[in-house]
Amino acid sequence: MTRRCLGALGAVGAASVAVLAACGRDAGTPASGGSSDLEGGIRGAGATSQSTAQEAWMNGFMDANLQAFVDYAGGGSGAGRTKLAAGAVDFAGSDVAVDDDEAAGLGGVVELPLYVSPIALVYNLPGLDATDHVSMTGEVLARVLAGTITSWKDPALVALNEGTDLPDLDITVVHRSDDSGTTRTLTDYLSATAPQAWPYGSSETWPLEGQSGDGTSGVVQTVSAAPGTIGYADASKVPGSLGTVAVGEPGDFVACSSEAAAVTLSSSQLVEGDGGARLAYSLDYDAPGAYPVVLVSYLLARQDYEDADTAAVVRAYLSYAVSAQGQDLAALRAGCVPVPQALRSRAASAIAMISP
Fold this sequence. Notes:
Layout: H1 3-9, H2 14-22, E1 40-46, H3 51-64, E2 68-75, H4 77-86, E3 91-94, H5 100-105, E4 109-123, E5 135-136, H6 138-146, H7 155-160, E6 172-176, H8 181-193, E7 211-213, H9 215-225, E8 229-234, E9 243-244, E10 246-249, E11 252-254, H10 258-267, E12 269-273, E13 278-282, E14 294-302, H11 308-322, H12 324-334, H13 341-351
Parallel strand pairs: 1-2, 1-3, 5-10, 6-7, 6-8
Antiparallel strand pairs: 3-14, 4-8, 4-9, 4-14, 10-11, 12-13
């Protein structure tokens, strides 16, 4: 976890740290004595943004349920949703909420926004400390990423960063080469905030040509290797050697942090669908003190399973992920934002709809 996310999260509590140290059946440590009547195995796939959190949830869950097994393969949001629809996996992770047609194709779906993390706009600028935070409004950020601002010395950037010695370098935008929920999150923000500067709409596929990287690690690696670059990545995956953009308006630029992302989440609307089985956030980009570029990633499950043991393990696993213990553990391991108690209560009601 990056230092910036650690500082924002603050002290989660000694009890959670003890849980982190104890859990992990695959870590070579003895089980902590957890036991239950739960038996069976389930498989998941989907958003790679959740991978570290899923690892924390799986290890903690299996440590407490010694006869149960959970596996999560990643592979991307679209692949996860496709595999869930085909019956190839029992649950999925998706950085994009399902639409009504997808939900109907699954015969009913439980959808829970359980992984929340800021998306950092990362840059490599020689001479600037990583804590300096180059500031951009939503419109200027859109113009940079769209390629209409091409120099770090552009007057629009200089005016927003008085006192910062921006280098005289061309801007190279680095985007994801794969279809990505992270790309969708960023383009959602750009199209909502600056539609004239960003006329390309919202998409999981980056709409422009240029330098790219495969997955989060590819973008981070490319930006790290080339001065003048700017890219985007889940904040928990950003090394301390790279700078991050502070986003907002003059007088209210907000640096990327889990704390500021939590402000966005708390001011946003939670929308229910299908009688409370589907929970999705409609993000508020304008809350004071909020970092607006926030990834909300979902855990998806069927409402109905042919096998009773599978249904029971899916219910129990999702319940663990949404619990205070599961959320604190994921925050420690992945740097994500623990979801609020109000969501945890509504998620419990949605999970109760899962049945054989």
